[in-house]
Write the structure tokens for this entry.
Amino acid sequence: MGETFDFSAALCRMKIHGAKVRRQAWKPNKYVWLKPASEESMSYPELVYIDGSGRKAPWGVTRCDLLEADWEIAP
């Protein structure tokens, strides 16, 4: 386990450093990052599954995720 932080710090890491972040409470097969803006859409948080399925989906922070301080940089 590495350094953990709250959601505001996780958001800063995504916005400023392009980091992929996850919660320690989540199963280890997913992370969130900020998908860059394109001609078709603005930048938005995207949930990515790293289980070989290739699944990706727009992601909105939940109340539980917003208040927890177990965010970390995803491997």
